[in-house]
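User: Could you check the structure of this?
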Amino acid sequence: MAEFGEEAVAGMAVVARMSPLAFATIFALSGAVGPIVGQNYGAGRFDRVRDTLREALLFTALVVGLAALVLFMLREPIAHLFEAEGVALTLIFLFCGPLALAFFFNGAIFVANACFNNLGRPFYSTMLNWGRHTVGTIPFVWIGGALYGAPGVLIGQAAGGVLFGVAAILIVRGVIRSVEEHHEKPREPGLFQRQARQVILFFSRR
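Assistant: Sure, the predicted C-alpha cells are below.
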C-alpha cells in the first residue's frame, strides 16, 4: 500500500483499526462455538455438530450484514472523524460499502478453525490459516494493486478471503462427515459397572 502514497497508507490504517471494532462479535464467535462442537463430538451427536456449524454461519451472516449496514450509514462521519481525503477517503468508503460484506468469509474461516480444533484436526486449521495469509493474500493483493491501484489492494485482500472462506466451509463439512464415519461409539457398561454405579448412587443419597 505504501507504493500508492501517504493517503493510501492512512486509509489502510483506518480500515485495519475499524475491522476488529466492527466485527468483534465474529472474532469472539470461534471461542463460543468450539466447546459446543467438542461436547457434542464427545457425545457422538454429529447432528448437533452440523447444526452448530450451520447456526454459527447463519449468525455470522446476520452480524456481518448488520455491521456492514451500520458502516455504510456512518461512512461519511467516519471519514470526517479521520479527516480523510483523496485515496484515504476512497478506501474508507470502499470498506464501509461492499467490502464489509466480504468479512463473512473471514468469519467462516474462524468457525471452521474452531470445528477443526475440536474435532481432532488442528492441522487443517494451521494449513488453512497459513494458506489464507500467503497464497490467499499476496498474489491477490499484487494483482489488485496492479489493476486498480490502492483500492485494488483491499479488493484483492477480500477476494482471497472469499476463496478461502468457501474452501473452509467445504473442508469442514467433509471433516465432520469423515469423523462421523470413523467415530467409535462408547461401549455399553458391563454388569459389574452397572452394579457399581447403583451402589455409588445408593450411598450418595444417604
